[in-house]
Amino acid sequence: MIYRTGSYKTFTIINYILLAVISVSCILPIIHVLAVSFSGKEAAGANLVGLWPIDFTLDAYAETIDNRNFSNALQTSFLRTLIGTAFSMLLTTMIAYPLSKEDSELKGRKWYVWLFIFAMLFNGGLVPTYILISKVGLMNSMWALILPVAINSFNLILMLNFFRTSVPRALEEAVLIDGAGYYRILFKIYIPIAMPAIAAISLFTMVFHWNSWFDGLIYMSDLENYPLATFLQTIVVQQDFSRLSVDSESLKNMSQRSVKAAQIFIGALPILLVYPFLQRFFVKGIVLGSVKE
Amino acid sequence: MRSTKQQWNLRRTWPLHSMVLPGLIVLLVFQYGPMPGIIMAFQDFKPYAGFTGSEWVGLDHFREIAAFSDTRQVIWNTFVIASLKIVFQLVTPFVFALMLNEVAKMAFKRTVQTLVYLPHFMSWVILGGILLDILNPEGGLVTRVMVEGLGMKPIFFLGDGNWFRFVVIASDVWKEFGFGTIVFLAALAGINGELYEAAVMDGANRWKQLLHITVPLLLPMAIVVGTLSLGNILNAGFDQIFNLYNPLVYDKGDIIDTYVYRMALLNGQFSFATAVGLFKSVISFILIVTAYRLAYKFADYRIF
User: Fold this and answer.
1) Which of A20, A157, A182 lies nearest to residue B16, judging by beta carbons?
2) Residues of chain A contacting residue B273, judged by C-beta atoms under 8 Å apart
3) For A5, which of B119, B123, B205 is closest by C-beta distance?
4) For residue A108, which residues of chain B lie inside 8 Å, CB to CB?
5) ipTM over cut 0.85
6) For residue B39, how far is the Cα from the chain centroid?
7) A29 at the B interface (CB within 8 A)?
8) Distance between CA atoms of B228 and A26, rounded to whole angstroms?
9) Which class for A238: exposed (0-12), middle (13-18), buried (19 or more C-beta within 10 A)?
10) Which of B:5-44 have CB within 8 Å of A?
11) Nearest by CB: B30 against A23, A148, A260
12) What contacts B27, CB < 8 A, 6 or more positions away?
């Protein structure tokens, strides 16, 4: 039995209250944005809205959806997230499998591993990378947002450790002796077994792509090619309209607080939607990556 | 003898090598491809002249870094902001994990976890947008609560250097502390329950158990986390600062990464910006390698 002292009881009550307050504080900002986005223009503009909408209306969302620049950016973001994640996962699993072998089985494994590790620790820096992207002709191309970030060494290590710990060696050796090739083993044994890890890393990669904004800012010179995160950063948050060629009427609409809030909320919505699935995985994934065997 | 063995190995394992190949090409082009460009830190790089046509200046840019009060201030800001973040990102999750560990109701615990992990996945574009809005000195939500609710004077949080640093650190802790508790909760789950039973037998109450079992067993994880975060001592958080700062707070809030961005892409000082970036990369590299070695040596922590 646990000793129940008086002071511990007091502590427990305070502890519950504190935890509740702290937790709620983590979602207050997003609730505020939601409330502003559903509020009438006057109330939102005068900053009267707290955590509940005033003069409830969907006008802000209607205007946001009508905004061609916004829907364009939304589409770009979906596309980059989809293609970027698929591409990234394909490369990651294909690298992780060979590198999960022992040094004795795959000659040269050490070299590969060090190449990937070094790339995680050191990079060329902003200007040299920018020059390279423009030299290989990827400026204004969606591939500039996909190829440079395709391999995340941290995810690679997670995948590699998962392969190493979850597939029994004996099973693989038996199949090898039966004459199956490495490709068949990867796609028929490893990938099905590693599905939870693949799902988890995919979700992380999707969130990463959805949230990335800086690459769009420097590699895209045309607002037409901006992903949503970059669009939100420049147009909605920083209110930098220099790249926007629209009439003053829609410009005025764009800077209205309720419309801004609606755009920000739509930007956060996909994250909120995948979050429940994400949460199921990431605790496991992180523990898995930090504890080796 | 050895060469035939190697040949045999290659004949058998070439599919494995071919699997690495696509990723290797992407890695070599996009991660290693830019690295030769670092030489521009030792040149007076002009885009029209290219790497071969630009004049060599040796270590001039690095001397400038040491001599300019601007760069020295920026490096100092980076160091101050990053170290404060490291300290608070270590202490807050540690304490929070202990608090959560005392919760007996599983449903409550899980709800708390769900809520506090969430901000980690939000981007600084969105959170920065919200912060700019609620901290606005002219009628922002926080300002209104302070003025109308508490009768205080409005504070221009993002227009004053010291307040800016405070907001940066507080909002970063708010965003990441929840996620930081995960490793501690995992370590807590690994503590053998028999230890507590034995302690109860000896008459230890919950305070004593916390002090003499939980905290000591959690400390090694705190040491690992703290050591590994040393590599971040020059990472003050580009995304966050970039989305929150403005010229009013450059003196206290400008960090290496934002400075490099402005020097390079807005002022066109490509070589100087690259030199500043290289200075940061080299120091970070040394720190990360040292940190991992220390973590390996003292806690047997390995990533691969």
Assistant:
1) A182
2) 126-127
3) B205
4) 17
5) yes
6) 27
7) yes
8) 26
9) middle
10) 6, 9-10, 13, 15-17, 19-20, 22-24, 26-27, 29-38, 40
11) A148
12) A115, A116, A119, A151
- Give the count of beta carbons closer than 10 Å to the beta carbon of residue B165: 18
- The model carries a pTM of 0.91
Which residue is listed with tokens 């505020």?
Answer: A32
The DSSP line for A178-209 is TT--HHHHIIIIIHHHTHHHHHHHHHHHHHHH
The answer to whether A204 touches A272, Cβ cutoff 8 Å, is no
* Interface probe, candidates B126, B235, B292, chain A, greatest A C-beta count within 10 A: B126
Interface of A with B in 59-78 (CB under 8 A): none
Burial class (CB in 10 A: 0-12, 13-18, 19+), B19: buried
For B136, the closest chain A residue by CA position comes to A47
What are the pLDDT tens digits along chain A (293 aa)? 455 567 788 889 999 999 999 999 999 999 999 999 999 988 888 888 888 999 999 999 999 988 888 999 999 999 999 999 999 999 999 999 999 998 888 888 999 999 999 998 999 999 999 999 999 999 999 999 999 999 998 899 889 988 988 888 888 888 888 888 899 999 999 999 898 889 889 999 999 999 999 999 999 988 889 999 999 999 888 877 776 666 556 666 666 889 999 999 999 999 999 998 888 776 665 554 444 33
Residue B237 · residue B165 · CB < 8 Å? no
Distance (Å, rounded) from C-alpha B120 to C-alpha A282?
Answer: 12
**Hunting for tokens 């926007």 — which residue is that?**
A244
Strand partners, B56: B43
